[in-house]
Amino acid sequence: MTSEALILTTVPDGLVNLLTSHLPASLPLLRRLQFTSFPGGSTPYSRVLVSADGPINTDGQPGSPEPYRTIRQTPSHFTAAYLDLSRGPETNMWIYSTLEDARNDSTSPALPPDEAALAEAQILSVLRAARRLVHEHEAQLAYPGAVLVGTINNHVRDMIRARAPRFPIHNRGDYDKLLFRIDELPPADVVLPEGMRYDRPTLDDCHVVKARTHIPRQVKTLVALPGMVIRLQDGTPIAWAFLGPDGSLTSLHCEEPYRRRGLARAVAAKLLRERTAEYGTDGWGSADVAPDNASGQALCKSLNGRPSWVVSWSFLARAESNPGKPKMSGKASSEGTKVTMGKNAPVNQEGAGQVSGSLAAESMARGGGFSENPGATTGAATSAAAKSESETTATKQSGGENKTSLPAEQTDNLQSATSVLGASGGQGGPAPTYIASQYFEDTAGPHGKNLKEGIDYEGTESGMKKALNAEPGSEDDPARVAERQFQHSQLLAAGGTGPRQHHAGDETIYDHLEVNEQA
Description:
Elements: E1 6-8, H1 15-20, H2 27-35, E2 46-52, E3 56-59, E4 68-71, E5 78-84, E6 93-97, H3 99-104, H4 113-136, E7 146-153, H5 154-163, E8 169-181, E9 196-199, H6 203-212, H7 219-224, E10 227-232, E11 237-243, E12 248-254, H8 263-275, E13 284-289, H9 294-302, E14 306-317, H10 359-365, H11 376-397, H12 408-421, H13 433-439, H14 463-469, H15 478-493
Parallel strand pairs: 12-13
Antiparallel strand pairs: 1-2, 2-5, 3-4, 5-6, 7-14, 8-13, 8-14, 9-10, 10-11, 11-12
């Protein structure tokens, strides 16, 4: 049985060497852990998650806030991940499993079933640890209820989807992972045209880069990344490229007037050759390129890049509620809870007479036709008597007290309502004055200058009057109007919830290269 994954605030000693021994499959996570040593490469929310079948020993000084961890033996299988929930909307998580080693190479023999099961269990152990951190995270996530996992190997993603439905994962498109060997890059720098020079990006350059890209990346992240620019004599940047937190070639761009001159290829080659070693000296580089990004594919292949496996950017959903908090019932916030009083519930019994507030009651109060119906008054008296008997029975059953007495403020409201309704035989009295003022005209006519009687002023159309006079089924029929409004609201809601991610040309929001330069 796989033990619970460790959650560490620092990179454990030996993990970098262990990942290096599993290159190139471990390259994205290895580079992300190496990036933690860069200025701004980590935050107080950075966590390293490890699940291994070998021991991870504890060292360190007694009383230290967290014992220092070190891997002293080489496990046969392990899963490791880097997670930073404060990085949104940028990538939150990178993950590697030894399951990838055999799956990436079609010529390698398949793992024995017991080893494959162990590797899969380690992946799920790390995901449980990540979910725990999500539950404990107090700040608002950039993607509510989800973590953005970057450049995840599709073999791992598909395993999670097939074997662990409790961890819903939704990918946002596939990308080819192209690998470079630094010593196999084109041998020399391209000689730039007169008036251009290579340089490293400045803070102002990073603001320009952010303005040119649709990838959600912060300026403070760009400042921390190794980069290379080509600029004019006046300092204007015209082409640039960066190495991402996972060391991949990213944000490669050339301004429109300077394209098709080989500048994008030149700046990418110089960046990979000169700045990859800032992560490590293993000699590996990479790029994630969408299959339909023809120019990006061609440029990487001109740098001797080789497609090696397929990755994706995926949302790992938080499907379960916090285990330390009560689970929600799934009801709408406006839905109440039904409460029954059982056999002691008061019952109001009414005869065939008028119902207070009904048209029949109003007819009787004004001497209308309903008052001529036989037994109408008798029915009202019978209803009142039944109600009185019911209230008396309920009082006796409660031990002589009226258990349904209202608070004083509600009693005052009830008395006020009674005075409005009147007390003549239970019939409704005159309506409140604000009701009358809405429907009856002042006999003295309108007051003030330039006023006219009624609602139909010149140039003004009464919606109420149109509705009352409309023929059933016509354009002004209130039912037809309501139906059109409902259909309109349904159309607005059909696009889904949340911000819509737009495409730009043949690129997507997670397309690292953004290459529009012909190789």
